Amino acid sequence: MSGEKKLALAASPAPAALAAEAELRRRYEWHDIDKAEMIVALGGDGFLLQTLHAMLERHRALPIFGMNLGTVGFLMNEWSADLLESRLDRAKMIKVAPLRMEAVTVAGERISSPAINEVSLLRETRQTAWIEVSVDGRVVLPELVCDGVLVASPAGSTAYNLSVQGPILPLDSSLVAMTPISPFRPRRWRGAILPDRTKIGFRILDPVKRPVSAVADQREVRDVASVEISVDRASPLTLLFDPEHALDDRIAREQFTI
């Protein structure tokens, strides 16, 4: 694969990633990102998400092979400068469909943003958020009183979603997770698992007294009045993994991590 592919190289500004970038540039041939057919990304999970978002903005979603030079690196492969072409030839492709957030602010501004991991609604002040929840246009929770609520994709189900006790979703499950953050009422509601064709709606009750922000991965929209979330099947993303470190296998194993 790699012998016929034009490769681009991207690195985070962290010193370790920049040093790795310099080594790879000495050892392999690289192309401008506009002429490339595949990207090698050096950094952590956050930098990989930035690179994926940049691809969505360009409307040119190239396959990305990430190598971990960050902290956790759940979405990344192990760093090594050796045998890169062989690794790319053997790499397993994983398709990921991003979420699409459509937010309307209290001022009436409409903002659309993709999210690869999750869309989170979070209270902005000490006041709890009051949120009406709907599924496919039907109100399922007239009033969720909480610190927030999020919708996670399978790829993002092991990130923020897992830290607030949300479920881990197999990568090929065609599901999304809706998980409350510190729910106060309904006291026993712990979230829902929904088909990824579902359209999820949130309406903020009393958004002036109890303001809420919406965050699509790393993009925040403050003072939202309503948010709609769906899966964007028209913009699939491709991640590349060493066969022994494929993302679907990692997600499956994470369910047995104590």
* Secondary-structure element pattern, one letter each: EHEHEHEEEEEEEHEEEEEEEH
CATH hierarchy class name of the largest domain: Mainly Beta
Q: What is the domain total for the residues?
A: 2
* CATH superfamily placement of the largest domain: Probable inorganic polyphosphate/atp-NAD kinase, domain 2
Q: What is the average of the pLDDT values?
A: 92
* Structural class determined from secondary elements: alpha+beta
CATH architecture of the largest domain: Sandwich
What topology, given as strand order, has the largest sheet?
A: 6-5-16-13-8-9
CATH topology of the largest domain: Tumour Suppressor Smad4
Largest sheet: 6 strands, antiparallel
The termini sit apart by 38 Å
Q: Residue share in helices? A: 10-25%
Shape: elongated
Quaternary state, please? single chain
